[in-house]
Amino acid sequence: MPERKNGPELVEELRLAAEAVEVGPPPVEEMIRRGRALRARRRAAAGAGTAVVLAAALAAGLAWLPADAGPDGTAPPAPPAATRESPSPRGHVRVQPYERVVINDSFVMGLLPEGNQNYVVSFPEQFDEDVEAAKQYPGSNINPDSLSAGYRAEADVVELVEGSWRLDRTPARIEIAPDGQDVTYPATVVTLAGEPGWGTYYLDVGHHPAFTLGFRVIAYDTTGEVLAEIPVTARR
Predict the structure, then answer these.
(1) How many CA atoms, within 13 angstroms, populate the side-chain half-sphere of residue 231?
(2) Can you tell me the distance from the alpha carbon of 22 to that of 236, in angstroms, rounded to the nearest whole number?
(3) Element spanning 131, H or E
(4) Selection from 82, 65, 63, 81 nearest residue 73 by Cα
(5) DSSP calls for 25-56
(6) CA distance 8 to 33
(7) What secondary structure does DSSP assign to 84-105, as a single string?
(8) pLDDT tens per residue, range 169-197
(9) pLDDT higher than threshold 50 for residue 86
């Protein structure tokens, strides 16, 4: 068993051993470097925590923005409601039941599924009322393979020619031919969705100042064959 030393002898030996050890200068620079590195790590950890909080806040904020929000966070203005363009003065127009067909500023037309060849030509402000009344009417009920025709005039000046048709096939075109003139005017042909075999037509005569009373309405097929024809004379 090794001998234990106590007291003055042990103290003296420790002093002599310590004097034999060469002590260098204190590592001040190393301690400063380690301290700076530790502070940098602490700042980085704190910054990472802040970044996580900021990212969470941004995500929460974006969740409240509209899907189509602009870069400034505001939603773009809503697009204007779609509107149906007025039909062209000629050609074909296909409409839904009770839909307004704008002829001009003074007249509108509407086709109804109730009755036979049932339609109205009305002033715009009276259209809804006239349609409701027409739902109780039997319609024009014209003969097969025929046309009906009428006109609106003010002081013997024709403003509008309109009528209906009942044919096996939709006319390729309907023309209005004034008596004694070498000119014809193409009418607009109107058909009702889900109602084959009939329709209406109109001609806004305001576009044709040379138009006179006394005319024929003629419906043609795609080959130019006459499907139906009706003469119209001035009412006395």
Answers:
(1) 5
(2) 140
(3) helix 127-134
(4) 65
(5) ---HHHHHHHHHHHHHHHHHHHHHHHHHHHHH
(6) 42
(7) PPPPPSSEEEEE-TT--EE-SS
(8) 999 999 999 998 899 999 999 999 999 99
(9) no
Better-scored residue on pLDDT, 27 or 115: 115
As beta bridge partners, residue 201 has 163, 189
- Torsion (CA) 198, 203, 204, 207 in degrees, nearest 10: 150
Cβ partners under 8 Å of residue 212, min gap 6:
158, 178, 179, 180, 181
Tell me the average pLDDT across 200-207. Answer: 93
Residue 223, pLDDT above cutoff 80: yes
SS3 127: helix
Q: Which residue has the tokens 């400063």?
A: 32
**pTM of this prediction?**
0.62
Backbone angles phi and psi of 76, in degrees to 5? -65, 155
